Amino acid sequence: MNSMMSSFDMSENELYGQISPGLGELTNIKYLDLSGNKNLTGSCSQLLSGSCKKIEFLKLGSNNFLGTIPSSIGNFCNLKHLDLSFNTLTGSSPEFLQEIKNCISKSFSPEMKYLDLSNNQLVGRLPEWLSQLEKLIHLYLSYNKLQGPIPTSFGTFRRLEHMGIAENELNGTLPVSFGQLSQFIDLEVSGNRFSGILYEEHFSKLNKLKKDSLGKNNLYGTIPKSFGQLERLQSPHLSRYIKRGAFIGEDCKDSLIVKVKGQDLEHVKPLSLIVSIDLSSNNFSGEFSTEITKLSGLMILNLSRNQLNGSIPESMSVLYELSSLDLSSNNLEGIIPLSTSSFTFLSYLNLSNNFSSKIPLPGQMTTFDESTFARNPHLYGPLLGAYCPSDDLDQGQRQSNVEDENDDGFIDQWFYLSIGIGHFRTIFCFTYKKILV
After folding, report:
1. pLDDT range class, residue 388, cuts 50, 70, 90
2. Alpha carbons 189 and 239: distance in angstroms, whole number
3. What separation in angstroms does the CA of 266 have from each of 148, 257, 259, 415?
4. Measured between alpha carbons, how far is 421 from 416 in angstroms, rounded to an integer?
5. Which of 100-109, 147-156, 200-209, 288-297 shows the highest mean pLDDT?
6. What is the distance between the alpha carbons of residues 35 and 48, in angstroms, rounded to a whole number?
7. 3-state percent breakdown (helix, strand, coil) of the chain, nearest 5
8. What is each CA distance from 22 to 32, 41, 52, 78, 197, in whole angstroms?
């Protein structure tokens, strides 16, 4: 290969086999992208021997690279973007960045802005010194086998906007210092072993937050009222762009994994549009927070599998951007507000294991099947084929359900017993004669 080459991009092809060690000898290379080939394999240690000291962008994600991440990457003082995600890399968490050789700056990887090591087999703890990456904006370490607590120093990142450490084996409490990360846009820590209470201070200055994924942990207590102060979730986004007839550029797209019906579904939207809160599968208690209903720009809300009680407030109607709402498996009660039928964009809804009331009609509610309302034994309405005698039926409907009164003082009356077992519902109708006195 030409040793003067400064850029080499063979991404998103169908390349396979062993990678040539010669790539590591391109001393003038600044941009190297082999990502998305799926079947490229080889040792990262051989490829990154240390000769590529001018490199700024290194993208090797979505392949089948093996072995440990070489410490020679610490020599790449100009490295701004490192993506090694979706490989089979092993070893400890990114200790390699501590290697400081021939760098003018005394800080670790002084130019690093983007670090993605997700979806590998890395082990060990999150190192304290990561917060010293002064220019870091993106940090993705999800889907590894990392253990231990989040260092308190993580609350001192100066420019960090995106942090993904989901689906590891991390434990301890979430540092209250997270509330000082005023540049945060998305925080994904779901699928770990975190415990403790969420305090108001956790979200006190997170005015830019758009994605908050804390599901599948052991967090408890009430949902902080400071959620209602998240400014980026308070103003509608989607309808504004629809009215303008255009979305922002392709390069700004981001994705969000949402668990629906036991499956992880990927929502892909322009980054400025994804606004979501996932607190599912924890132990949050208390009444449904009315503060959440202030977030009129919210698109995805998942509070399922907690211990929330009380009723859904009528003010839910302001969340007209919602496309996914999951409140299943809580202790909610009362009626389902009529205003929920006005959710125009709602494509997924799960209210199972909660209510005893009539399903509001008409509107968006008519687009969902019976499974949406399963395991609510006292819920009724046309969608379930179950009715209640107290419904305000018109005179014609009443005449179809009640026989004409007889001369001898008898009148037919119908009683409906609705029994919900799993996803099945059986209606028993009983008729009896009552003597009018």
Report:
1. low
2. 29
3. 28, 5, 9, 45
4. 16
5. 147-156
6. 15
7. 20, 30, 50
8. 13, 14, 11, 21, 52
